[in-house]
Specification:
With 240 residues, this protein is α/β, with parallel strands linked by helices. The chain has a single domain (5-201), classed as 3-Layer(aba) Sandwich (Rossmann fold). Helices cover 36% and strands 10% of the residues. The protein contains eight helices and six strands. The two termini are 28 Å apart.
């Protein structure tokens, strides 16, 4: 059944303006113990959220959507980061071999139908994986794109509560945290990839562009589909 609006409003009032460690501690230990997962792309900024998670509950389920189209560097970085942080709950989810053979046998769908490609490689597998949870955590931030400027910390996502503990953090906040904790960078960041998804749909970002400008270039597409627009029944992200 859909998430009660009052629940999300209450969560936003109680913790929507708290520091990320406090938000995560409340979500993992108090509100949704053993009923919440983290969804991570192991991309350019993923180490920050995962480091925060590891400091609170290193056995937290971390869902990595293995689309079959990731950069090799991303897969290697995932393994390195998991070992570095001591995460013990990482799970890979993705399309079955039969789905891939039926929907994208020649691996060209990303070129002519990126929405359809994301739908079966990312959206459907994640929906199946989240059936066992009441809530999930993302690493989205408001500075990443104009479409995320009003991102709340707590929001309704169908039958789940979605938690965005880093929503208010800036690029400078992220960089400072990485430096303070000496977190290993994704190897593609040094090559100009600011936001890293599947290889066919990710390109280098030029100076002055939004962080996510390199995703799905030449398409009117800004999200893969796992994140729906925030509903209007949550509190605004600023002010109390």
């Amino acid at each position: 059944m859909p998430v009660p609006t009052d629940l999300v409003l209450d969560l936003q009032r109680r913790w929507g303006y708290a520091p990320p460690p406090q938000i995560l501690s409340a979500a993992l230990r108090e509100v949704f113990p053993r009923r919440i997962a983290v969804v991570s792309s192991f991309g350019a900024e993923s180490a920050v959220l995962l480091h925060l998670i590891a400091a609170i509950e290193p056995a937290t389920p971390v869902l990595f959507i293995d689309t079959g189209r990731h950069f090799v560097e991303t897969l290697e970085y995932r393994d390195r980061l998991v070992a570095h942080l001591g995460l013990s709950g990482v799970q890979s989810v993705g399309p079955s071999a039969e789905e891939v053979a039926r929907r994208d046998a020649d691996a060209s769908r990303a070129v002519w139908d990126p929405d359809g490609c994301c739908a079966f490689r990312k959206v459907a597998p994640l929906e199946r994986a989240l059936l066992n949870f009441d809530a999930w955590i993302t690493g989205r931030k408001r500075f990443q794109a104009t479409t995320r400027l009003d991102l709340p910390v707590f929001e309704v996502d169908g039958v789940h509560v979605k938690v965005n503990p880093l929503a208010s953090w800036s690029a400078a906040d992220i960089a400072a945290y990485v430096a303070a904790h000496d977190l290993p960078p994704h190897p593609l960041v040094a090559q100009g990839f600011a936001s890293i998804g599947c290889a066919p749909c990710t390109s280098v970002v030029s100076a002055g562009e939004e962080v996510r400008a390199g995703r799905w270039r030449s398409f009117e597409k800004t999200e893969c589909g796992i994140h729906r627009p925030a509903p209007t029944n949550t509190l605004p992200p600023t002010g109390k």
